[in-house]
Amino acid sequence: MAMSSFSLKNLTDCRDYRSIAVGNSVFTDDVWDISPYILSKTTRNSRKHLRFGYIRNDHIKHTVKLYAYYKLGQIKPQSVENYINNTLPRFIKFCSIREIHSFREVTREVLLAFAFWQKTEARASNSVMYRTSFVVEDIIRIGQMMDWEVPESDVLRGITSADLWKPEKNKDTCRTRPIPDDVFDKILECAINKEKNILTRAGIIIQSQTGMRISEVLSIQYGCVHESPEGISYMEIKTEKTEKGEPILHKIFVNELVKEVIRELEGFTEKLREQSGMKELFISQGKSEEKAAVCKADRFTSRRLTPFIKRWNIRDHQGNLYPLRSHQFRATFVKKLILQKIPIAYVMKQYSHVSIEMTWHYLTLREEEVREIYSQMILSPEARIAGIKADVIKGKLDAMFKGKTEREVDSIIRNLSGTMSFQPLPNGMCLYDYRRGNCTDGDGCFFYNCPNYVTEVSFLPILRKELNVMEKEMERSRMLGMERQWQRQYVKYSYLKPLVSSLEEQASEKE
């Protein structure tokens, strides 16, 4: 039985690291066998081990191990393997050359020297330099929160990997950009009313109405649709690409269109399922005497979507056949949720996104669309916001809206949003305008005390949970006599508590 990353312990104040199990190894080993955390059968055996032997200095090695252990509980183990085995050795080599014996010795000057060394002596590409610098910064950021042996001062301000190396993404070549509205409408109309092949039709309808990955769609089985006591229909699927990198049973709400096409699929594949003993609905008879097989996700676009586009002559604005890819249905669905003002935090939860950047990557919204969404969230008369500048923003808006008609209010909001910048955060938004240069407050918004940070009532559940965890950690620190740790937590708590209280008060007033 494969172990879950959720079983990893909290290492705060651990006194005997030899007692800490990591997969089939223990913390003090120089090689960690993390194969119990990797459920994918296609992952090479070499990628199932974290190797720390190349780190000669014990202090640096211990910090890197703490980081690896922490990340195993946060992201996919394959990503951790890549960080430790492939990305970090470049920085460790630099530390050896510069005789750096601890992460505490990493100053702003050291990071700049490392950047220069990568560029001139290591002659690394921009993408390699970005990844290496990112991991080093990540160790420092997390280490400062967890009280590891890292710099206590802000050494990252103004010289982060993103500032130095991160290339600009070309949105025109983004493979997951949403489908244009008119093209999407024609695709759906042809699938519902014209397409004769049930597997192609069902795949398009289910993806378009749920935002599921094509691999998830093709894996659905007989009896997957259920109904809650309240009469809400949902579909249960098992998804492998999750925050923790392990399969989970996921519930997706479905409408009548999806329910109907699934009923049709169940009838169409009934005899084939009986003969093969399979439960999957997306199965077809193989050639000659081959057994029935489930449709393959990597062939769905080439064997079903591309012929579908040609068959029904669906073209883009330039008159070319539209180059549809299956993952675009997911991007389109996520975009529509955001445009309907569904909180980004909900979208991340519903679609198992590892980070806010992944959610944002799916959107590729036009700038004016982003402005419209966020301006309504924080600038409308009904907005319920909190933050250092929240009262100032509300006061100025109330004065501007006073005596205005609804149309005049909308015009004021549009004009204001055109002058503002909205950056998404997992727990709110940042109003800093990056056209003025890099933000001088660095990671201040994490501590909820940045004047550019504003949050809104839809983020209240996330903030409540964060506050609850913080209170438990503070209580534990008090009991153990860890005054310094308690004081660090209290600083964050003193900023977060008023935000939660303000949002709770506004939420109760609205009710």
Give an account of the 3D structure.
The protein has 511 residues and is of the alpha+beta class. The chain folds into three domains: 5-166, no CATH class; 181-335, Intergrase catalytic core (hpI Integrase, Chain A), CATH 1.10.443; 366-510, no CATH class. The chain is 50% helix and 8% strand. Strand 11 (423-425) and strand 12 form a beta hairpin.
- Supply the number of helical segments: 20
Residue stretches low in confidence (pLDDT < 50, at least 5 long) are 1-6, 169-175, 241-245, 353-358
Estimate the global geometry from the Cα principal axes: globular
Report Rg.
26 Å
End-to-end CA span:
47 Å
Class from secondary-structure proportions = alpha+beta
Number of strands: 13
Largest sheet, in brief, is:
4 strands, antiparallel
Helix content: 40-55%
Number of domains: 3
Q: Beta-sheet strand percentage?
A: 5-15%
What order do the strands of the largest sheet run in, or round the barrel if closed? 10-13-12-11
Overall mean pLDDT stands at 80
Keywords:
511 residues, alpha+beta, hpI Integrase, Chain A, 3 domains, three-stranded antiparallel beta sheet, 20 helices
How would you summarize this macromolecular structure in one to three sentences?
With 511 residues, this protein is an alpha+beta fold.
Could you give the topology of this structure?
Elements: E1 21-22, E2 25-26, E3 31-33, E4 49-51, H1 58-72, H2 77-87, H3 89-98, H4 108-120, H5 126-146, H6 161-164, H7 181-193, H8 198-210, H9 214-218, E5 225-227, E6 233-239, E7 248-253, H10 256-268, H11 270-276, E8 283-284, E9 293-294, H12 297-311, H13 327-339, H14 344-350, H15 356-363, H16 367-379, E10 385-386, H17 390-401, H18 406-417, E11 423-425, E12 428-430, E13 453-456, H19 460-479, H20 483-510
Antiparallel strand pairs: 1-2, 3-4, 5-6, 6-7, 8-9, 10-13, 11-12, 12-13
Helix pairs in contact: 1-2, 7-8, 8-10, 8-13, 16-18, 19-20
